[in-house]
Write a structure and sequence with these properties.
Helix 1 packs across helix 3 and helix 3 runs antiparallel to helix 5. The protein has about 190 residues and is mainly α. It contains 9 helices and 2 strands. The protein has a single domain, classed as Arp2/3 complex 21 kDa subunit ARPC3. Strand 1 and strand 2 form a beta hairpin. The chain has a two-stranded antiparallel ribbon with strand order 1-2.
């Protein structure tokens, strides 16, 4: 069976969300005790997964990694190059395609009108975003521990604990903003 090709609309949306991720990655606050900055890139990944279909969502974040690895300064603090993907923050970046795919696939799995249009939908969004954040923390912390030559538990204060409050705020923003944004863009998305 032949795979369906991406439509021009899907290609444009993939590129747009790649650019959004690159732009939001530049909003970065370095922390003095860790090589991992606080960024808005995960907010972009959340919105990518909640807005696009699974394949374009995954491709959007994969293209982001490819252009960054090629040297374009799309990673936090206008950095680019493969060394970023293999440095201390690389695991978090590698998680982005998996996060976007998981969020999009989960969101589309539950097309049930009672969930989508009912009072449970915001809670549903929150749950899938929390799970996706665990994916990011797992990939990122495991890689951070490997690069820094410390154990996983010792990497938690460097790669997870300082970010929980900011990531919770990003999830709240998505829970509030994603449904109206998606509704507004629905004429362009589907």
């Amino acid at each position: 069976m032949a795979k369906r090709r991406l439509t021009v609309k899907e290609i444009c949306l993939t590129a747009a969300f790649t650019a959004i991720t690159a732009a939001m990655s530049q909003v970065a606050v370095p922390l003095p005790f860790t090589p991992v900055p606080v960024t808005l890139s995960t907010l972009a990944v959340f919105m990518t997964g909640l807005t696009l279909k699974p394949r374009p969502a995954f491709l959007s974040q994969t293209v982001y990694l490819i252009i960054g690895a090629a040297g374009l300064p799309v990673f936090a603090r206008f950095r680019g190059g493969a060394d970023v993907l293999f440095g201390p923050t690389g695991g978090y970046l590698w998680a982005y395609p998996a996060m976007a795919l998981f969020i999009s696939a989960s969101d589309r799995l539950f097309k049930n009108a009672k969930i989508k249009n009912g009072t449970f939908y915001p809670a549903f969004i929150a749950v899938i975003l929390i799970i996706s954040m665990f994916i990011c923390y797992l990939f990122g912390t495991a890689w951070l521990a490997r690069v820094m030559k410390i154990n996983f538990t010792a990497a938690l204060p460097l790669g997870v604990y300082p970010y929980i409050a900011a990531d919770a705020a990003k999830i709240i923003v998505c829970v509030i903003c994603a449904p109206p944004v998606k509704k507004r863009l629905s004429a362009y998305l589907f």
